[in-house]
Design goal:
The protein has 151 residues and is mainly alpha-helical. The protein is 81% helix and 0% strand.
């Protein structure tokens, strides 16, 4: 029963993380925004997600590792979940060392103090976001696969 609960929670949490990142990727392309709109939207998103998403990501990693350990008797599932954990960790590292430093810079901006290189930072953030979305999506697919796989 514990394994089923952990598997369910792993799917739920990884799905929330992947879905949120995918939604941002599909619905929010900052390249189409004016500078003022970009700053307003980005600062709002940072305020809403900058703490929540890393916590959800960490919980997803922990649950995926626990799910792997609980299912270590099935070597295939164990390996798939360890790989999924690795992709989640990569996503977290991209966020921590790529997106969040840019977020910190953007939070200092106001309509009257936007640096001339704002598009470079915007584009770098967007590339990093697409990379972390990809790694999280791969992880989520692996988690799903490990849950629907038949022996």
């Amino acid at each position: 029963m514990t394994t089923h609960i952990i598997r369910f929670l792993t799917l739920l949490m990884a799905g929330l993380v992947a879905g949120t990142l995918f939604g941002i990727w599909i619905g929010y392309n900052p390249k189409n925004l004016s500078v003022n709109t970009y700053v307003e939207y980005q600062q709002g998103a940072i305020k809403a997600l900058n703490t929540l998403m890393p916590i959800l990501g960490l919980i997803s990693v922990i649950l995926t590792v626990i799910a792997a350990i609980l299912q270590k008797q099935d070597q295939f599932v164990f390996v798939i979940l360890i790989i999924a954990s690795g992709f989640l960790i990569i996503s977290g590292l991209i966020t921590k060392f790529g997106n969040q430093p840019i977020n910190s810079i953007v939070m200092t901006w106001s309509k009257n103090s936007i640096p001339t290189n704002w598009t470079e930072l915007r584009d770098k953030w967007w590339l990093l976001h697409k990379l972390r979305t990809l790694t999280t999506f791969i992880s989520f697919c692996l988690i799903i696969w490990s849950n629907i796989r038949r022996n």
